[in-house]
Structures are given as C-alpha cells and as structure tokens.
Amino acid sequence: MSVQAYDIIGNIHGHADELVKLLTHLEYKDSSSDYFHESRQLIQTCRMLF
Q1: Strands 29-30 vs 5-9: parallel, antiparallel or unpaired
Q2: Confidence of residue 46 (pLDDT cuts 50, 70, 90)
Q3: CB atoms < 10 A from the CB of 27, how many?
Q4: pTM of this structure
Q5: pLDDT tens, position by position, 11-21
Q6: Sequence ranges of the domains in the chain
Q7: Residue 5: how many CA atoms within 13 Å on its side-chain side?
C-alpha cells in the first residue's frame, strides 16, 4: 500500500452513520473490522478532554 493522499476528518461523535456514508463516498472499502483505501490514509481528529 502506497499512501498518496490523506483524508482529514474532524470530530464525528454521535454521527457514525454519516461517517460510513462519507467513507463510502471517498471509496474506502469495508473490511470485517475497519475501512481501508489502497492509496489514501484517514486521519481523524478529535477534541481533547482534560
């Protein structure tokens, strides 16, 4: 797998269905435990709680 691009997604808390739709739209493939793409890498940001 050679990463050629990155997809950065912000906080998705409570929006799992929308995340799945977005990943499908971006052509990520659903394996039994996660999503993957042959040439892209997902970076998910979230807020930090202190």
Answers
A1: unpaired
A2: confident
A3: 10
A4: 0.75
A5: 888 888 999 99
A6: 5-44
A7: 8
Residue whose C-alpha is closest to residue 11's, from 44, 40, 36: 44
**CA separation for the pair 9, 31 (Å, rounded):** 20
CA distance 16 to 18: 5
Please report the pLDDT score of residue 32 as a whole number.
83
| Torsion angle, alpha carbons of 38, 33, 10, 14, to 10 | 150
SS in 3 state form for 1-50?
CCCCEEEEECCCCCCHHHHHHHHHHCCCEECCCCEECCCEEEEECCCCCC
